[in-house]
Each structure stands twice: as structure tokens, then as C-alpha cells.
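Hey, resending since the last one bounced:
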Amino acid sequence: MKKETTESFYSEDRPWGSFTILDEGENYKVKRLEVLPGKRLSYQRHSRRSEHWYVVRGTAKVTLNDAEILVETGKALDIPQGSAHRIENSAGSETLVIIEIQTGDYFGEDDIERLDDDFGRSA
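The C-alpha cells again:
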């Protein structure tokens, strides 16, 4: 039997692109991140969640605890809880698309400690 749903996805524009919440539960949240060419998210860490990033389009330049890693389409990277991390779209003119799976016990914006930010949002 087909399951009927009336839920809709929540999207939000950010200075670096946008995100859409695809699914969430008590101990997880799934987002689609779109990072515009030449943009990057803040260098940040979380005390109450870890993240798993799967690149579905483009190449992500990831900074993880000060080490730079290129993650290409079809590849994934785990971001352990408490690790400093950043996504950057520095390759080409295409929008970078990442599926982000967060796991933990809290997913609020106040669990973001911004270490550096191109848009003046760091502490």
C-alpha cells in the first residue's frame, strides 16, 4: 500500500548557497547543501553531532582539522563530533551539491562554534 505524506521540505538561503532539510528524527537530520561557485561555509565545529558528507555533484574542498581534502562526486567523508571543518566550492562554475547526514542528540544552530567565517558570523 502506498504511504501518503503531506510533509514538505524546509529550505533556507545562506550567503554561501542554500540548504534543504530532507528528513529528520530524534537522533538524525538529513540535508541537501548547495554551495555556490567560489563560496565556502564557515570553519566550524559541533559538540553534539557528527556529520557524514556525500558529494553528489562537483568537487568539495574540505578542511578538516586544518588538513585540506578534495572529495569528488560519488565520494564521502565523515566529520567526527568536535572536529573543525569547512566545505568550499573552489572548482569550476558548477554548484556543489552535498547530502549531509547528521547524527547525535541535538541539531540546533546554537551547536555551531564558528572559528572563521567569510560573512562576519564568527565568534
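The chain has one domain: 10-116.

Sorry for the duplicate.
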